[in-house]
Amino acid sequence: MKEIRVTLETVTPLFLGGADPRGEPELRAASIRGALRFWLRALLGGVIGDGKLDELRRAEVAVFGSTDTGASTVVVRISNVSFGASIPFSRLAGWNPSSGSYEKPGIAYLFFAARRTQSEPERKAIPAGSSFELELGLRAGVQDQDALSKAYAALWLLTHLGGLGARSRRGAGSLQVTQVHGNAPNSALPPLKIQASTPEELRTELQEGLSKLRKNIGENASVGCPSRFDVLHPDVCKICVVDKEFSSWEEALDAIGQQMQQFRNRRAPDYQNVKNAVQGEGLTQPVERAAFGLPIVFYYRSLGGTKGTLEGERHDRRASPLFIHVNRLFNKKYALVLTFFQAQLLEEGEKLKLKRQGPPAYVSTPDLSLIDDFIQEVQRKIGPCLEVTGW
């Protein structure tokens, strides 16, 4: 076999900009290749280890190439793109100008970076229910079934755990395979289409799929805890399915978005710790909310709109270690999948930096236990979290 060809559907809206991120959304093969590369790296890290960076890079480059080594062994192509008019953030979140509030506050919270700002228009999304064909094929003259198998594995992970485009770690851009044209490059690989009709069945499907992928790729390696980067390994990656069926993607994301907002809002001790710091004092302890990703903008109305921006000492951004993904079940209901990568928040020795009026304040990074606390909150307020184990 020289190609994998599937039909994909957007389960949740997809924020994927072109030359102008705030212009009309644009579906591009390069963006899909980047997402596949991320999931392949995470998978390889779990079977090679997070310390053998040169070996990992060689294994990744053997599939998707690099600027140093030349063209990708696996070529990514898209065709038959079918989607209607793009949808602006305000409509997705249900902005009501009469009340000055969002009818879907959870979605507004998860997708907040797509909102209109003082200097930029709101972002638009490719709507849920859009479809396109994806082909992963071997470059002309190449006969490398192993590379094609690894690309297939990355596609399985992207469509079961991840997402594409902006806010993909907050539930946007969830994709699902609706048709498979041909066979898998290796009979030991799991099917791409979801067969589960309940969250419990989905947990079993994820467990079996992850086990097959890891066995197909290589032996189980040891990794540090926390790992050096996002690694798919049971010791440093927690995956769970929320045991509740939703009637729509909107219901699913609005539910978990509202819980995340309530969980993080004015949370002690961060609220007062940062409030004191933006007034000129020092940060007295690590800012726990950094566990959800950086940067974080703190805004205090009680101080006349005083702001502080928390980022890394050397890196202004750090993606969230928590992925929120929406799967459509076989019975047309929807389920939430949470994937928590227990990886280093910043590089070894790097501190958090709070930018404020005057010189910045510095403090050490927190651990990631706040993510576990949030998952427990989801379990209490939305539904039991069925952990995927034994993979």
In helices, the fraction of residues equals 25-40%
Strand content: 15-25%
Query: What composes the largest sheet?
Result: 4 strands, antiparallel
Give the rounded overall mean pLDDT: 94
Classify the secondary structure makeup into a structural class. alpha+beta
Q: Count of helical segments?
A: 9
Oligomerization status of the protein chains: single chain
Stretches with pLDDT under 50, minimum 5 residues: none
Q: State Rg.
A: 21 Å
Neighbour order of strands in the largest sheet: 2-7-1-8
Number of strands: 16
What does this structure look like?
This protein has 9 helices and 16 strands. It has 391 residues and is an alpha+beta fold. Strand 4 (95-96) and strand 5 form a beta hairpin. The longest helix is centred in the N-terminal third of the chain and has 20 residues, at 29-48. The two termini are 28 Å apart. The mean pLDDT is 94.
Write the layout of secondary structure elements.
Layout (H helix, E strand, L loop, with lengths): L2 E8 L18 H20 L4 H12 L9 E9 L4 E2 H4 L2 E2 L4 E2 L2 H6 L13 E2 L5 E8 L6 H17 L13 E7 L17 H19 L19 E6 L6 H16 L5 H9 L17 E5 L5 E7 L9 E7 L5 E8 L10 E4 L5 E3 L5 H13 L3 E3 L4
